[in-house]
Amino acid sequence: MAEKKKYRSSDWYNSKSHRRDTFIHRGWMRNQGHPNHLFDGRPVIGICNTWSELTPCNGHFREIAESVKKGVYEAGGFPLEFPVFSASESNLRPTAMLFRNLASMDVEEAIRGNPMDGVVLLMGCDKTTPSLLMGAASVDIPTIGVSGGPMLNGHHRGETIGSGTGVWQLDADLNAGKITEDDFVAAEISMSRSKGNCMTMGTASTMGSMVEALGMALPHNAAIPAVDARRYALAHMSGKRIVEMVKENLIMSKVVTKASFENAIKVNGAIGGSTNAVIHLAAVAGRLEIDLSLDDWETCGKDIPTLVNLQPSGKYLMEDFYYAGGVPAVIRQLLERNLLNKDALTVNGKTIEENNLNAECWNKDVIKDFSSPLVKEGGIKILKGNIAPDGAILKPSAASPELMQHKGKAVVFESVEEFHEKIDDPNLEVDENSILVLKNCGPKGYPGMAEVGNMRLPQKILKKGIRDMIRISDARMSGTAYGTVILHTSPEAAVKGPLAAVQNGDLIEVDVNSGRLHLNVSDEIIAERLKSYKPILPDIKGGYQKMYVDHVMQADKGADLDFLVGKRGSEVKRHSH
Ligand code: FES
Q1: DSSP bridge partners of 78
Q2: DSSP string spanning 182-207?
Q3: What residue ranges in 342-456 does DSSP mark as E strands?
């Protein structure tokens, strides 16, 4: 029999020149009961699983993997499921973001080091999506994404409540004395009443939508609820498709190009997506060696209205979004206005236009028309100025229109601990026109860039019925949060970025329309203050966290580790036995 070397896995399973190695690679696999014919040179498909009971949003992923396997077998492939680091947004401390890059390293090495010809990425909770995309991008074999899908809508005491967004609202009500502690606890299971990830347009659903907009998943990937039978049908179809992708050698970098990122930025604007998409897409682009900067968000995101009426920007939840037509119905509207790169390829071998041009919208209150959008200027606004020379971001659809142009005195917190200690101090000099400034919460400062940028307002302001103030920080914000919150100021305070120079009482000018973020202090004084500034640095004892703070890049570059940028390919050295 001629030696089969059609796919990369053949080097493990079909090499006649290394018989002993082949015996070992195949033989040990046989202990799982795989029959001989599965090693006949057919495509081997890895199913990269972020299942974990500690990542509740991905707790159903073993079931999703079973559906993927059915599709792989049906198409004549050989599926093999493998676990990778699962970064849980709701459990991991100090922040899941600290481990996104670690998880991506796990994914990259697991794909490269193992006999697989194509890979299916099972992603759901916030950081699990970018970490898998980043790791897979650096290897660049045929890759398809399958998201786990959102939870069903939360229902509590006659009200619909959304993941995350409901927590911030209930917390504000508890602080303002409107509800009791018991009411607060009772809302927990009413909010999270089924399997799946957060069902607001938070980071998980945003990244699921980005996967779809980038062309990395089949249509409707983002919105089908986790418990809906159609989620499992999509997983099955994705398993079938990845086998064909291997045969077509449709590798990730052929699908995801600069054009796909431009499409994703526009879709993010139209769905009112999370600010975290900015940082994650930058990191994925970096792995694919595609130049994507904050300026691309400004140019591509400009004039894209938010059409999707979902919390935290609007009213509805992901379940409603799916029934209304999901991401395809949004993409169709953008295509009809010639706003997308319509020829961008997707994983099913069709263009984004071919996939979505006939998509239907079934509820125009959930997915609004261009003529009557939810927010006229959606997307992400980039702000620059002497506080953030490398940029900062704001999500207008979650902000208060009356604060888009504002001048106010800074109330400064050097750390998140100081913020918690002082925010409710009756003597804190703060009013509703003040601007809250939080430092040392950036990639190196926290470390991991915590989601604390949407600082809660002082009780004395909440009691006046005020629900929003301008907040500025080098932190991130949960995708489910809202408010006039300026985030990701780069460079961060911990590396003596100029945010570090802001002091109590300084006047700050914000003009979102023109992208201006200005501290009314002279350059000389800023330089002087920075010279003597002592950043509050985290207490790192070594290990991965040491490597992270030594190598993490700033937010505008995606906060990846500097040595992980780029593709390293799928070649791997044979370890002869
Ligand atoms: Fe996992 Fe929100 S906590 S998606």
Answers
A1: 44
A2: HHHHHHHHHHS-SSSB--SSSHHHHH
A3: 381-385, 388-394, 405-413, 435-438
The CA distance from 518 to 216, in Å, is 39
Q: How far apart are CA 446 and CA 95, in angstroms?
A: 9
Q: Are 275 and 477 in contact (CB under 8 A)?
A: yes
Distance (Å, whole) CA 494 – CA 485: 20
Rounded Cα–Cα distance for residues 363 and 139 (Å): 41
Alpha carbons 282 and 291: distance in angstroms, whole number: 8
Q: Give residue 5's pLDDT.
A: 52
DSSP state of 334: H
Q: ∠ CA(403), CA(406), CA(412), 5° rounding?
A: 100
Tokens of 324: 């209304």
**Centre of ligand 1 from the C-alpha of residue 43, in Å:** 33
For residue 61, the tally of other CB atoms under 10 A from its CB is 28
The residues lining ligand 1, judged by C-beta closer than 6 Å to any ligand atom, are 57, 89-90, 125-126, 163, 197-198, 202, 204
Instruction: Report pTM.
Output: 0.96
Which atom of ligand 1 is nearest the CA belonging to 124?
4
CA-based end-to-end distance of the chain: 23
| Residue 32 contacts residue 1 (beta carbons within 8 Å) | no
Distance CA 496, CA 18 (A): 56
Do 66 and 238 meet the contact criterion of CB atoms below 8 Å apart? no
- What's the rounded Cα separation, in Å, for the pair 225 and 197? 9
CA of 537 relative to ligand 1 center, distance in Å: 28
Q: Whose CA is nearest to atom 1 of ligand 1?
A: 125
Task: Return the ligand 1 atom nearest residue 164 CA.
Answer: 2
Distance CA 524, CA 499 (A): 15
The minimum-distance atom of ligand 1 relative to the CA of 58 is 1
pLDDT digits (tens, 9 = 90+) for 421-468: 999 999 999 999 999 999 999 999 999 999 999 999 999 999 899 989
CA distances from 463 to 178, 406, 468 (A): 10, 22, 12
Residue 387's pLDDT is: 96
Ligand 1 atom closest to Cα of residue 126:
4
3-state secondary structure of 122: strand
> Which residues, listed in sequence order, are joined to residue 507 by a DSSP beta bridge?
409
Supply the residue whose CA is at minimum distance from atom 2 of ligand 1: 198
Q: CA-CA distance, 475 to 492, in Å (whole number)?
A: 9
Residue 5: C-alpha distances to residues 28, 46, 142 (Å): 21, 18, 17
At residue 3, the pLDDT reads 46
Which residues in the chain show pLDDT less than 50? 1-4
Ligand 1 atom index nearest CA of 479: 2
Q: Give the distance (Å) from ligand 1 centre to CA of residue 198.
A: 5
Selection from 374, 369, 362 nearest residue 306 by Cα: 374
493: DSSP letter: G
Residue 76: DSSP 8-state: T
The dihedral sign for the CA sequence 462, 464, 465, 468: negative
- Taking only the tens place, the pLDDT of each residue in 83-132 is 999 999 999 999 999 999 999 999 999 999 999 999 999 999 999 999 99
At 164 the pLDDT is 86
Q: How far does the centroid of ligand 1 lie from the alpha carbon of residue 89, in Å? A: 5
